[in-house]
Amino acid sequence: MNFPYFISGRLSKDVNSSFTSIISKLAVVSITLSLSAMILAYFILGGFQKTVRDKIYNFKGHLEITKYTLGSSFDDNFIRVDTDFIEGLHHYEFVDHTQSFAYKAGMLKTQEEVEGVGLKGVSHDFDTLRFKENMVEGRFIAFTDSAYSKEVVLSRRIANKLRLHVGDKVTVYFVQNPPKFRRLEIVGLYETGLEEIDKSMVLADIDLIRRLNNWDDTQVGGVEIFVKDGYDMDQAEETMYADLDSYLYVDKVKEKYMQIFDWLDLLSQNVSVFLILILVVACFNMVSILLILIMERTYMIGVFQAIGATRQQIKRVFLYNGMRLVLQGLLFGNGAALLFAFVQDRFHLIPLDPVNYYMSFVPIQWNFEALIYLNALTFVIVLLALRIPLMVITKVNPVTALKFD
Question: Where is each ABC3 transporter permease C-terminal domain found (predicted)?
Answer without folding.
Answer: 273-398
